[in-house]
Specification:
peptidoglycan synthesis (chains A, B), alpha/beta, homodimer, EC 5.1.1.3 (chains A, B), Rossmann fold, globular
């Protein structure tokens, strides 16, 4: 039997999954979290899917060895590459970020998707929703990792990627956990289009499922321990620019995975 | 005794080193080349130096097993991380891209450097030249890898990074082999500043050294075989946008390194 007091593991290629972590902590303030940012190997989006799948398995294994009771793959590329296999083969509940946003998109008539190249090419979203338009946007992750979401550059890059979107798009899936930081720029280019952000929707699904399985922590304090494969201080600085106060961060070498 | 008819190995994290390859092929039209682009792990610039050093050793080992007579580390981050050790410990001549550009910079009074974070923080350039200004520009490599060097985005990003450069800069070292593609944008932001591109300078050094060691190939045909760790077709498409006609490309899995 899994221990309800065990932490929830959340992972992403870098800082993007912090949007999901934040939504989880708001909905589940009594949980403890382990957040894993694979900052030495970010970005995942241009890498072969098989490689990203291997990274996802490595990190899931690491988190399980830390004793997590559930795993949230807070990265669309990794979710596209590793789910549903990971969920079927692990002994703890595993949640991805693709399905929640794709389901929400079904309520709209004409839906677009932006994501990394790997996510767009994986075909993960069309399993759940018909897409009228999809575009890979390789520069958006580095733009966020560089902290430039409020810079005029963000608007120009968003325009570059979105200029050929259909004029009658009703909703756009932000198919990468980094993209919510760019909502301002994306919304300015596509006014009136609903921007579907998987962070909140995924957090709701996690909360529902943990409650249904009797896995909610009755006495946690909402702490987060961060693990990164790259430089911890660079991570701390960037995470804090993104509004995440990093109390504790540990460097994990790739050999430990 | 090394075989003068053996190929020259050239490597980079991605397509940036093609600027060096092109300069080499122009100066040494009778050589054969192996070009290695570590496209599954690009970019190197934000990764810990120790990791980049390991990558450089892995790739050098792979190229040696292919029988190269010399190795050109056509990547500033890898040159900063792995040289001079790599040159001291291998049995073939090894050339980096840092020293040639840094030497050329000594002819100017006020010199600046742009490069990846790892290159700037490594202190590799100050070993050879005093720098009045240095700046890490993490977005420039993804911008080139995305093929956007002629897009208005390039100008805006260049301005973002260069706006605090001293007004009386005489020369700027393009401390990354991807940056020559951005010469237009960089030159527009810093008119009148000499842009020092290591590709040509490194090729000259390689040509001189191979001649001095009697290692020039009398009868090669200027062919290049490309190796990549990521998707070969994506590489071919991008390389061709950069003006490199890719006749032969082979995928190398990271396990083969």
């Amino acid at each position: 039997m899994k221990d309800p007091k065990a932490p929830i593991g959340v992972f992403d290629s870098g800082v993007g999954g912090l949007t999901v972590l934040k939504a989880l902590r708001r909905l589940l303030p009594r949980e403890e979290f382990l957040y894993f940012g694979d900052t030495a190997r970010v970005p995942y989006g241009g890498k072969p899917l098989a490689m990203v799948r291997r990274f996802a398995w490595e990190i899931a294994g690491f988190l399980l060895r830390q004793g997590v009771k559930a795993i949230v793959v807070a990265c669309n590329t990794a979710s596209s590459a590793a789910l549903p296999d990971l969920a079927e083969d692990l002994s703890v509940p595993v949640f991805g970020v693709v399905e929640p946003a794709a389901r929400a998109a079904r309520g709209f008539r004409k839906v677009g998707l932006i994501g990394t190249q790997a996510t767009v090419e994986s075909g993960a979203y069309p399993r759940y929703v018909d897409l009228a338009w999809a575009k890979a946007c390789p520069l958006l992750v580095p733009l966020v990792e560089e902290g430039l979401w409020d810079d005029p550059v963000a608007l120009l890059v968003a325009r570059h990627y979105l200029e050929d979107a259909p004029k009658d798009l009703e909703a756009l899936i932000l198919g990468c956990t980094h993209y919510p930081f760019l909502k301002g720029a994306i919304g300015a280019v596509l006014p009136g289009v609903a921007l579907l952000d998987s962070a909140e929707l995924t957090a709701q699904e996690v909360a529902r499922a943990l409650e249904a399985e009797g896995l909610l922590n009755p006495e946690g304090q909402g702490r987060t321990l961060h693990f990164v494969t790259g430089d911890p201080e660079a991570y701390r600085a960037l995470a804090e620019r993104l509004g995440e106060k990093v109390e504790a961060v540990r460097r994990v070498s790739l050999e430990e995975l």
